[in-house]
Design brief:
The chain has 32 helices and 17 strands. With 834 residues, the protein is an alpha+beta fold. Helix 20 runs antiparallel to helix 21. The radius of gyration is 55 Å and the shape is elongated.
Amino acid sequence: MQINFFIILLIAAFLISLALTVYIGMRRTDRVKSELFLAMLSISIWSFAAIFEAAFTGLDLKILFSKISYLGIVTLPVLFFFFISSYTNLDHWITNRNKLFLFLIPAATFVLAATNELHGLLWPEIYLKQNKIAGIFAFYEHGLWYWINISYSYIFLGAGIVMLIFSLFRYKRFYSLQTRVLMIASLSPIMGNIMYSFGQSSIGGMEITPICFTLSGIFLTLAIFKYQFMDITPIAREVIIENLYDGVFLVNKNNKIIDINEAAHRLLSLSNSDIGKSVDTALSDSPEILEYLKMEKNLEKTVRKTGIRDNKLFLELRITHLLDKKKERTGTIIIVRDITSEKIAERKLKESQNMLLNIIDFLPDATFSIDKEGRVIAWNKEMEGLTGTKKEDMLGKGDYEYSIPFYGERRPVLIDYVIGDLPEPEKQYNVIEKKGNNLVAELELTLNENNVHLWIEASPLFDSNNEMIGAIESLKNITDIKNVEKELRHISFHDNLTELYNRAYFKEELKRLNRSRQLPLSIIIADINGMKLVNDAFGHNMGDRLLKHAARILKKSCRADDILARWGGDEFIILLPTTGVKEAQEVIERILNRCKKTRFKIPISISMGSDTKINSGTRISTVLKKAEDSMYSSKLLSSKSVQNLIVRSLTKILFERNIKTESHSERVVSLSKRLAEKIGLPESKMDELILHAKLYDIGKVAINERILKKKSRLKKAEWDEIKKHSEIGYRIANSSSVLAPIAEYILCQHEWWDGSGYPRGLKENKIPVISRIVSLIDAYNAMISDRPYRKAYSGKRIIIELEKSSGTQFDPDLVSGFLELLDEDGPQMSIPGS
């Protein structure tokens, strides 16, 4: 490896290129800088490889780094062309597809350089030479493809220079120095490369192109830091100046016009032919503007001018004098803005303000408006009604005066957060939401001694220039709506009958409380016993009353933090946070004790089961299942005793309502048993007969007592009501395992032998024999008893009635057998009048 002055120059060229690459890469904000970054990156690669190609003395290593340098050599001309195209705004045709096409020759050149040993198209011969400046260097004979690549590269370099020259002439008044510096920076390495390609022998075979890039780096650095080449390009004039909506024209120190943009042409009736003319000549029809130009100070004025088609224009004139370091005028820039539409808008705005105030005054919602300084400019009638403050007492007031009717003090309200730089208002309002520029909020407060819920929306007001000039706030009294929402929320989470929480609410609370900090977490599931029997016996209204009573018992037995809910049907559920097994059992005991003390039509009995979650790893669904299983076990154990208790209660009700007396019941049982024995009823059926004889009319507990005790004959509707009791009795019996065996007998109690009975119209032997027996004895018992509407029958009449009904209402064989019993017993049967 060797080191000499030539290699030091190469190192300097590389370092400058690399520094510029990094600098530009860190400031890539547009396409021009990105293109320049890629070009500088190619230069850096080329310079880097050239250092090692010159430093190594072996031919193989020199060839290797020469090949590497071609990565920069072949791409640089094309990238330089892309950069100049973007800089001069002549890149509209350069698409990604075209870029790939333009890189075909460079790509082929790089491949041929890498494989030169196979074909020699780039360098037919390569051998070492030596001189005092470069030391040992590789001398490359240039082949056919080398000249093809050089020609291709020079086409792009030449095209770039042509575009720069075009830019120089097009924008010479503004960017000539910038473009000249860039052209010098571009020509320097090109000239160096020409010397190397066509005079390799004359410069001792040294590749001086990378050194020439050192000069390019110096010029580019000068352009960047001194002339701000990267800050504005010639396109800026066309893009910025020409496309400005405002008119711009420049006057030099001799008062000659040196440039005019398109908007100035239009607004001042100027043309490109006026460039170079005296401003007095070009603007001879605008004496007012000329007068202002003669003033030495910068100013801004509004002038009126007749425009195209004699339209009157309002122009805003801005005159800025350009001064040199000695404070002497070097020129003047005049900016002209058409403000005609603004002036028209101002007039229309004034006309519409009164209309707007009238509209606001008649809006259905309470509405007020303030200007940018916070002074009230509108206060409508609904606002007067809501606050009790008159418009006259509020208009023109500021300093938060409008908040006093609401809060009793001066403080920011929603409208102030729209136009002012104030802290976030969330804490002041129940709900707040931003919708574009608007703020929407809900507020609950006491107004005129009433609790009021307000929906509020505040919006900024803009003028025709989209400048904020104030804000408007509307308030709607939504108290009634909120009350309805509150009721709906209550309904959605409460059981309508018991007013307890419902299943949906309980599930949400279960999710919330199923946390380790709530352990132990206990669950009690409760089920009302005999609910179906009560519904069947007394109707669903009585069943609802039972549910309400049970709910009150459960609620009084629970603690404040416990969650009690109706789980469904006749089931309730209790969630007990931080409650262990012992405490949960104490709650169950309290419930049972209250059940015993509570008075109701029938005894209130509740089966309960519980389980407790102790470990966080236990699934809550498992706890629920165990509590439910425990409840069902309790229900199963108490089922028969509860049903017996309810049956006794129903029997007691029958006696209390005088539907039947105990003596009547005993007589029906005794006579039915004797008749059954006479006809040979199997002993196995005797218990069912006795039970049926006691409760055959149990369905009457659900019949209106007024109808049962009516002394006069029943109307058809009343009789139809009475006839339902056998079906009611059937349902009652079926809901109890104790009474289920006699359910069918109760249903058939009023079927007639000839099929004319009710409810199913059964006849003869299709009617169960037990029903036939008790039906006959019940009729006999009725005949011998006084009724509200008649006296008891005599013995003779009873026999006549029984014989008359034999074969129609009653089984003939049973009537015959029963008459034999009457004949056998004689006076002992206690037949009246016999």
